[in-house]
């Protein structure tokens, strides 16, 4: 993940970090405002999302489901990166976009894709798509012992079926499970 993040333009690096470590959807990420990030409480408040229309503009909407309206706790190790990015790239007003385009509007998917394709190739992950960042964090959350309900809350899923689409067996995890089972014996 570090290689991918570092290969992105500096102003978009936090976008990779939040999409992966906090499992934010693309539309939630591009609609993030400075006031949605509460570093004192260590949470990102997801209340809105931007959806791209056929005309190329964004419609402001709610997250994908009712469960999508949520507070996502920020892993403490990424707080310095958030602070740095907010200082360097985001206006001080509460309603300022965290990821503005060069003109101050929401960053366009084509801009993010253009840079992320170059970054993924640099990282040797040519088949990685942006949405895979959410998938990887669901797997890692499961590896921490997070329950299905906890993963559903973190990713904003309204049904167990939606959450299970994001669940894949973590490579090597079965060995850890076997060792933990032996401790119970």
Task: Explain how this protein is built.
The chain has helices at 2-6, 13-21, 26-30, 79-89, 109-122, 132-143, 148-155, 160-165, 173-184; strands spanning 37-38, 43-46, 49-52, 58-61, 70-73. By secondary structure, the protein is mainly alpha-helical. The strands form 2 sheets. The chain has a 3-stranded antiparallel sheet with strand order 1-2-5. Helix 2 (13-21) crosses helix 6 (132-143).
List the helices and strands and how they pair.
Elements lengths: L1 H5 L6 H9 L4 H5 L6 E2 L4 E4 L2 E4 L5 E4 L8 E4 L5 H11 L19 H14 L9 H12 L4 H8 L4 H6 L7 H12 L1
Helix pairs in contact: 2-6
Task: Give a quick set of tags describing it.
three-stranded antiparallel β-sheet, 9 helices, two-stranded antiparallel sheet, mainly alpha, 185 residues
Question: What is the gist of this entry?
Answer:
The protein has helices at 2-6, 13-21, 26-30, 79-89, 109-122, 132-143, 148-155, 160-165, 173-184, and strands spanning 37-38, 43-46, 49-52, 58-61, 70-73. With 185 residues, it is mainly alpha-helical. The strands form two sheets. Strands 1-2-5 form a three-stranded antiparallel sheet.
Total strands: the figure is 5
Distance N to C terminus = 37 Å
- Spatial order of the strands forming the largest sheet: 1-2-5
Give the low-pLDDT segments.
none
Q: Give the percentage of residues in beta strands.
A: 5-15%
């Amino acid at each position: 993940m570090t290689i991918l993040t570092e290969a992105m333009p500096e102003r978009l690096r936090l976008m990779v970090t939040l999409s992966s470590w906090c499992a934010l959807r693309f539309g939630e990420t591009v609609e993030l405002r400075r006031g949605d990030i509460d570093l004192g409480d260590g949470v990102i408040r997801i209340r809105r999302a931007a959806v791209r229309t056929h005309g190329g503009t964004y419609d402001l909407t709610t997250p994908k489901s009712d469960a999508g309206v949520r507070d996502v706790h920020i892993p403490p190790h990424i707080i310095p990166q958030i602070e740095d990015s907010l200082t360097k790239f985001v206006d001080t007003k509460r309603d300022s976009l965290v990821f503005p385009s060069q003109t101050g509007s929401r960053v366009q998917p084509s801009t993010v894709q253009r840079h992320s394709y170059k970054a993924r190739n640099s990282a040797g992950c040519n088949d990685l798509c942006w949405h895979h960042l959410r998938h990887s964090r669901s797997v890692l959350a499961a590896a921490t012992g997070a329950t299905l309900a906890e993963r559903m809350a973190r990713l904003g899923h309204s049904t167990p079926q939606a959450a299970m689409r994001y669940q894949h067996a973590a490579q090597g995890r079965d060995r850890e499970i076997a060792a933990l089972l032996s401790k119970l014996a």
